[in-house]
Amino acid sequence: MSFDGSFIHSMKQELTALLQTGRVSRINQPYPNELILTIRAHGKNHQLLLSANPTYARIQVTKIPYVNPAVPTNFAMIMRKHLNGAILTEVHQLDNDRVLQLGFTGRNELGDQTKLNLIVEIMARHSNIILISRSDNRIIDAIKHVGSDVNRYRLLLPGATYINPPKQDLQNPFAKTSFNDITQLIKDYPNVDVLAGALQKTIQGLGKDTAKALAQALHKDTHVEENFKAFFEQFNSPKPTLSHIGNNKINFTAFPYPDTDKNEFYPTLSDLLDAYFATRAQRDRVREQGAVLIQVVKKQLKKNRTKLKRLKKDLKETENADEYRVKGEILTTYLNKIQRGMTTIELPNYYENNAPIKIKLSNQQSPSENAQKYFKRYQKLKSAVKYLNEQIHLTQQEIDYFESIQSQIELAKPEDLVDIRYELEQGHYLKDHEQHKKKKNKRRKINKPEKFVSSDGTEILVGKNNLQNERLTMHTADKRETWLHTKNIPGSHVIIRSFDPSQETIDEAAALAAYFSKAQQSTKVPVDYTRVKNVRKPNGTKPGYVIYDSQQTVLVDPDEKLVNQLSENAKK
Hints:
Layout: H1 5-19, E1 23-31, E2 34-41, E3 44-51, E4 58-62, H2 74-83, E5 87-93, E6 99-107, E7 113-121, E8 128-133, E9 138-142, H3 180-188, H4 192-200, H5 208-218, H6 224-233, E10 241-245, E11 249-253, E12 261-265, H7 269-289, H8 291-317, H9 321-333, E13 344-349, E14 355-360, H10 367-411, H11 417-426, E15 450-453, E16 459-462, H12 466-476, E17 482-486, E18 494-496, H13 503-515, E19 525-531, E20 535-536, E21 547-548, E22 552-556, H14 560-571
Antiparallel strand pairs: 1-2, 2-3, 3-4, 5-6, 6-7, 7-8, 8-9, 10-11, 10-12, 13-14, 15-16, 16-18, 17-18, 17-19, 19-22, 20-21
Helix pairs in contact: 4-5, 8-10, 9-10, 13-14
């Protein structure tokens, strides 16, 4: 997998055909390192995603909806000021490097025409999105500011002159005319893997997988020039491919590479990237935006697990309570044999056929006080049993609660984190982490559950967190509808909006319940289902906690393709 210069060559052609002459109608920055330009071209609106994410840097047209922050960032506001209404005039790649330049013409506040370049540098952790004025090459702003303390070669700050990334002494494969050096490399490095490494040091824009695919193409026969040109010609007519490689890994390429199987083909490179990055990038955003929530949940789990371990240890000690009672009774029976100042005494234990028992004494207490000390210890331990069992039950409930929150964060979309944060704030678990405390804690609106439609057209609703689960089950659902949940596993509440659903719909809803649970990666997941009227919430319990009866159980396998299909059904 590599969004290398050769892949960008194909993407440049796709973006040119789709977006050139289009007008920018909207600009948003839904995530810290990502920008969305809505461009209307050829009678349609297209969402152009520019990402400087260190792990998932890319440029593509996306169909995945994004939730924008309530307050736009400064960078988004500057982009809107300069690019709103601008027309995309050209898409240019810097040689075969990982740099794409989008040329725009627009109007400034005075109505004068301006020419701007929006530059996307796709270079892992050095990735950036930079807006420059074409007239003087000055940087207007960058999504990541880079000062001289980080990079001495060039500044990426507003007002600085834009300098291209350091140029490597490599050849552009799409402009290459002489192939003697390639022929020599083949002779010097007959091994494919070694040749691939040598090609990366010679040809510009080759990721590791592309270099290996090129090496294999060059090894087919002695027609070096033809093989070289034929390989790169495929980037001009891409066949977007999602393929499986070793160790259960998935790879995306502009066309099928050797040594892959289970190839899936997509109509466009952007569709391919949506399929590949949708889940991966979403989880990364959740980790990034939910860092405080994840930290709080881990802290609470660690604290409660330690507490549970200590409580169980204390409970185990109460098993010896009767020993203290027996010793107290024996001391009371033989008080006349005890003298003040003794530290131990051996007496017959009439509970064990008068076998001798050794009892410790305090030399500072009277015989009667020593006996009472054992009775008090016995009473204390017996009283502790009830308290300890109650505390163990409550602590286990806390652990179950935070394990469910942890599972919800793992399965959440970035917009779902708002509800989870609110829930933790309401429970006072985030008291020390709130950055903006309000004078009045106003009740906020909970996001709606996710909607799916089964194969026979029945609506299915899925809660994505405890607050959504509780509202869905206890307030939204009709008592005659069907409720589903994974059996003894943290997960979502699922409601089938039908009084008499088909078995096919029940199975599909159960698959949704299994997928949106902690058992997402398991097979044969047990899912309970019953009428909503059989689901109850005990008083004083945490959000989303319910008990139920009269249930039936079905075993299902979580299926991402089925989930996507049911989601697509809901959009029709």
